[in-house]
Amino acid sequence: MKQPLEQLIQNYRSEINDRLKKLQTPELPVSLYKPMLYSVNAPGKRIRPILTLLTGVGFGVDREKIMPAALAVEVLHTFTLVHDDIMDNDTQRRGRATVHVTWNTNTAILSGDGLMALAFRLLMETDSPQIRRMGREFSQAMLEICEGQALDMEFEQRESVPADEYLDMVGKKTGRLLGLACQLGALIATNDEQIVTNLKYFGIELGQAFQIQDDLLEITSDVKNMGKSLDSDIAAGKKTYPMILALSEMKETEKQPFMEFLKSNLRDRAAIIEAFQQYSAIEISRQKVTELLNRAMLRLHALPSSAEEYLKYAVKMISNRQR
Q: Which one, of 267, 264, 212, lies nearest residue 239 by Cα?
């Protein structure tokens, strides 16, 4: 009897968490390995490694063969979060104090570097004839994630950012790792280049939708639900998708007062929501999320039926998230 997908994903999440707890690292130096393990074992949804498993298993590959690549994706993701939190000066991540707050900035930088090295080590434990290609894609994805982060920081210094440039940025910063997660599962299973490419762009579009959804939740949710800081984007003047939409509807003389209003009302969610709603930014952002998710799902039509079913369910799971 086929296992319900909700239960399958929960089982994958539990197994990933167990494997992360059992990661082999030296005990010394404590100042390196303790914060590394603190970060990687923080509670998380494990969306990226689950995508790797769903893709590979959907093609009929044994789960055990895919697991090293799945763990590598999660550890790489954790590395990006540690460094991202330093740059954004965030104080909470996954319901915990961030590494640079718990220890210090230098420790966070070094433990992030250690996580990146550990991610590559895990990847190379994958038994696949395409391991060299997987290594190239892993490295290229990391480079594009850095490009996305650099663009994100550059956008903070610009008065205006077009929506298409924003989508390109989040396609790299957020989407490329989701694309990599699917690519790795596919590369273990098939030599079909078109399928591998389609899954890369499936992940990128999924990531773009995921990030816009995150932008919306930073406006409409709260710290308890999200498990991370919610004020840093507004305080830093970040060009999130709803912000770009709202600013594009304003006269030049309206922009500065709008930003000042947001910064002076960081704790007043109702006031912030109302400010964005005046420009239909929340509604239009939600429409864009739906458009991107539909586009991503169209890329799954040529997959084996199980892989298509699994990844469509993952899209549904992500689209329904509230944190």
A: 212
- H/E stretch holding 97: strand 96-97
Cβ(12)–Cβ(56) under 8 Å? no
Give the closest residue to 111 by CA, choosing from 34, 26, 42. Answer: 34
Q: Is the distance from CB of 302 to CB of 201 less than 8 angstroms?
A: no
Task: Give tens-digit pLDDT for 162-218.
Answer: 999 999 999 999 999 999 999 999 999 999 999 999 999 999 999 999 999 999 998
Domain coordinates of the chain in residue numbers?
A: 5-319
Q: How far is CA 241 from CA 35, 77, 149, 247, 318, in A?
A: 32, 22, 15, 10, 18
Nearest to 120 by CA among 137, 108, 105, 107: 137
- Tell me the whole-structure pTM to 2 decimals: 0.90
- Look at the domain 5-319 and name its fold: Farnesyl Diphosphate Synthase (1.10.600)
| Phi and psi torsions of 89, nearest 5° | 55, 40
